[in-house]
Every structure is written in structure tokens, then in C-alpha cells.
Design a protein that fits this description.
Largest sheet: 5 strands, parallel
Number of strands: 7
Shape: globular
Number of helices: 6
Oligomer: single chain
CATH architecture: 3-Layer(aba) Sandwich
Number of domains: 1
Strand order of the largest sheet: 2-1-3-6-7
CATH topology: Rossmann fold
Mean pLDDT: 96
CATH superfamily: Flavodoxin domain
Length: 211
């Protein structure tokens, strides 16, 4: 049995979001193909994802100085505990599916907050004499990204920072098995929007069988 994290960053469900519709098709096919695997959905618009702020830095600082957890303020305890929970869940997972829209050339801010919560030295990576080294080399990732324009290739590709950022960070964690599935161009060609979505759903189901 493998552990799967299905991580979505969209305020809308599959009835309004092309990316979420494709993500749902993927995860349903994956579950049907791998019924023994444990799939956990993290909806970043519903989960508590603390930002790394002054409370977090102060809490971490107290712990690193040798203070007990009971010496932290209530706010520090709540945030530090939740961040530790998220990072531990992440490193204990085998496969990750991220579903995000591309907003203003990047994914929604809540996704960055989540990625900050799991980018923990000593868990996702470590510093060595040769430089940073990823610790999650045995994992794999699929990123489903939806955008009204076309950013996976062509003249706008160099402006795209959502998929590229996620791929770069996962590589920093040591994850080289990284796939992208793009649902794009439906705003450029609204008359083909349903066809674009249907084709992406078909691709997602195919990928799910072998992922």
C-alpha cells in the first residue's frame, strides 16, 4: 500500500474549475486502479495552513534554544504544531498530485504557504558540505495545471512560473519523477473549451493507470 496526497488549491469544485474536473477524473481512475492505496485529499482552501510569520519564527527559535514546548505562547504552539504536522505528513507520503490554476503567472498564494510548510531542512532536504541535498528521491509527483491561455509551450512559456516553480522545488527535495498535465487555452478558444477539458480528462485517466 502506498500513501497518496491529493493537494488542491482552488476555491471552486469541478463544476466550475477545469483543473478540478481533470483532477477528479485522475483521482477516481487512480483509486479504481489502485484500490489498496491510501488517498488523502488536502483542500488548501479549507485546511488550516499557517503562514510562516513572527509567531512561527519565535516559536522555532525558542525550541532551538532548548525551551520546552510549554514555553511557547498559544499562538506559537498552534502554528508550530500544525506546520510540523503538515511536514511530517508530506515526507511520509509516496506520491503527490497537485491541482492548481495559473493566476497571474503563478499558483494561488495558499499553495506557496503550503509548500513553505513542507520545505523543512532535515526532512525534505539537508545541507551538506557539497550544498543542499534532497531527501525525498523515492517519491513521484503529478502537477495538473489549468490556465485560460497557453503557457506550457510557445511564446508565453517563459512567463509561466507555477509549474516551473513546483518542478524546481520538488527537484530541490530530490524528486526527479515529476510529470505535468496541462488544461489550457480555453479562454483563447472558448468554442473549443469543452473539447479541451474532455481531452485533458482523457489524458488524466490514462496517466492515472500507470502513475
Amino acid at each position: 500500500m502506498e500513501k497518496i496526497l491529493y493537494i488542491t488549491a482552488n476555491p471552486f469544485d469541478e463544476s466550475r474549475s477545469y483543473g478540478m474536473a481533470v483532477g477528479k477524473a485522475f483521482i477516481e481512475q487512480y483509486k479504481a486502479t489502485n484500490p489498496e492505496d491510501e488517498v488523502t485529499h488536502i483542500d488548501l482552501y479549507k485546511e488550516y495552513i499557517p503562514s510562516i510569520d513572527a509567531d512561527v519564527f519565535q516559536g522555532w527559535g525558542k525550541l532551538q534554544s532548548g525551551n520546552g514546548f510549554d514555553q511557547l505562547s498559544d499562538e506559537e504552539k498552534t502554528k508550530v504544531s500544525r506546520l510540523a504536522e503538515l511536514s511530517e505528513q508530506f515526507v511520509q507520503t509516496d506520491k503527490y498530485i497537485f491541482v492548481t490554476p495559473l493566476w497571474n503567472l503563478l499558483f494561488p498564494p495558499v499553495m506557496k504557504a503550503y509548500l513553505d510548510s513542507v520545505a523543512v531542512a532535515g526532512k525534505a532536504f539537508e545541507y551538506t558540505a557539497e550544498g543542499p541535498k534532497g531527501l525525498l528521491s523515492n517519491k513521484k509527483v503529478l502537477h495538473i495545471q489549468a490556465s485560460g491561455g497557453i503557457y506550457s509551450h510557445g511564446p508565453s512559456a517563459e512567463k509561466e512560473m507555477g509549474h516551473r516553480y513546483l518542478k524546481t522545488l520538488m527537484g530541490f527535495f530530490g524528486i526527479d519523477d515529476f510529470q505535468g498535465l496541462f488544461v489550457e487555452g480555453h479562454d483563447l478558444a472558448p468554442e473549443k473549451a469543452e473539447e479541451i477539458k474532455a481531452n485533458a480528462i482523457a489524458r488524466a485517466k490514462d496517466v492515472a493507470v500507470t502513475f
